[in-house]
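1st attempt posting a full record on here, be nice pls
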Amino acid sequence: MWLRYPKDQHLGFLFSKEIKYEENIRREILPFIKPGSLVFEIGSNIGQYTLSLSEHLGTGGQLIAIEPDHDNFSLLAVNCEINHCHNVTLVCKAVSNTEGVVRFFKDTVTGGRTGSLVEKYTGEHYEGHWEEVQTTTYNQLIATYGIPHFVKVDAEGAEEFIFTPATIIHPSTTYFIEVRTETANSIYNRFKSDGFAVYQIDHGKTGITDPSVIKGLANLLIYKKQ
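the predicted structure (as tokens):
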């Protein structure tokens, strides 16, 4: 599969004949994704995961790829088109706790990878550029597309807005959520209170019983044991 990207903002890809993006994470999550199922990808960027998820799901699956940054969304659409990802539905919105229009703070340094609804989480990659984006809610996504088998979330701190106490959490869904020190506690408690097991999968799979051990960014795999 082919990935188009702004060369000045993805220098790590520039001299690679083959892009191998977060292979250790992919190895952990792919066994939890059934071909032919429904998957939500909240925060698709330009399609680094979208393309492989589309291929893995096959013709009987459906991937809802959601990206608020308009520049990223344009490249995401191109990458899905040139790779014939017919099982992908593209949604140019942010997922938050309400429907409406909000400011999205853009990362114009590293290909929009740290753009966020929360300015401070864009960090040193924020050069003063923002745009208005439409928002939807996780509950509205379910109402529109159905209950997903798997959900991937990379929302740069907005995960707290997505999984609020009012968010519908389904026991049959597996969740893969990037969190940070500031959001780890609320995400952990939201799912643990509903009986989910929480694992960190950045360096192998480790069960989490205390979210205070999470420092910086962490990738959590969350599901109910059968």
